[in-house]
Design a protein that fits this description.
This protein is α/β, with parallel strands linked by helices and 220 residues long. The chain has one domain (3-53, 71-207): 3-Layer(aba) Sandwich (Rossmann fold), CATH 3.40.50.2020. The chain has helices spanning 13-22, 24-27, 30-49, 85-94, 143-152, 170-179, 209-214; strands spanning 3-6, 54-61, 64-71, 76-81, 99-109, 115-123, 131-135, 138-139, 160-169, 185-193, 195-196, 202-203. Strands 1, 4, 5, 6, 7, 8, 9 and 10 form an eight-stranded mixed sheet that branches. Strands 2-3 form a two-stranded antiparallel sheet. Strands 11-12 form a two-stranded antiparallel ribbon.
């Protein structure tokens, strides 16, 4: 089975930030919503860093030398646009030497309200034998995450994939478990919600993360 780490079940400041991005009285302040997403990303980065390989490096100080354990290789941070950008920035604040990838994935709706996930843009470095972190604040059906993974691995197969989402549905997690390699994948979450609406939005969730961060968009 894919390893799942739900940070929201632990008592920490992390839960304060999760509660604020969910809270309708607070989340409509777009600047605070973005900053909370950024802070959540920073905590994810810190926790993920504990799983990465380190090597001993000698550091010169003004008064001598000291051996320190330093990350051997920075991960690749990959973000699904546009909603993932504030969360991405939080991880980038800590993995500040990381290379970055960006994917445009969106829901293409028909006249009856049904939709399919489409990808129309990708920018990525080579991923072969790298650690890949795929960032999307909401893991609803899981389909956009799987399509993103399949698009990214055209740039090389990573040695490990970390999925980072603030809130996931049970259905989304199950879909990921069916379609991503178990031995090479970890899922990092802030909360797991039980329900999806008929339109595949997470309940209770937090609403549309992209709209809350950057303003409402026109639907095609």
């Amino acid at each position: 089975m894919i390893k799942i780490r739900n940070l929201g079940v632990e008592n920490s400041l992390f839960n304060q930030f999760i509660s604020e991005v969910r809270n309708t009285k607070i989340q409509n302040d777009a600047m605070r919503f973005r900053r909370n997403m950024e802070r959540i990303g920073e905590i994810f980065a810190y926790e993920i860093s504990k799983t990465l390989p380190f090597e001993k490096t000698t550091i010169n100080t003004p008064l001598g030398e000291v051996d320190m354990n330093i990350i051997c290789q920075q991960p690749i941070l990959a973000t699904i646009l546009r909603a993932g950008l504030p969360l991405h920035q939080g991880l980038l604040n800590y993995f500040d030497k990381a290379e970055n990838a960006f994917i445009s994935a969106f829901r293409k709706h028909d006249v009856e309200g049904n939709f399919e996930i489409q990808i129309d843009y990708m920018s990525s470095p080579m991923l072969k034998n790298k650690t890949l972190i795929i960032i999307d604040p909401m893991l609803a059906t899981g389909k956009s995450m799987v399509l993103t993974y399949r698009e990214l691995i055209t740039m090389g197969v990573p040695k490990h994939i970390h999925i980072v989402s603030v809130i996931a549905s049970v259905d989304g997690i199950e879909y990921i478990q069916k379609h991503l390699p178990h031995s090479k994948t970890s899922i990092w979450l802030g909360a797991i919600d039980q329900e999806l609406t008929a339109q595949s939005y997470i309940v209770p969730g937090l609403g549309d993360a992209g709209d809350l961060a950057f303003g409402a968009k026109l639907q095609e």
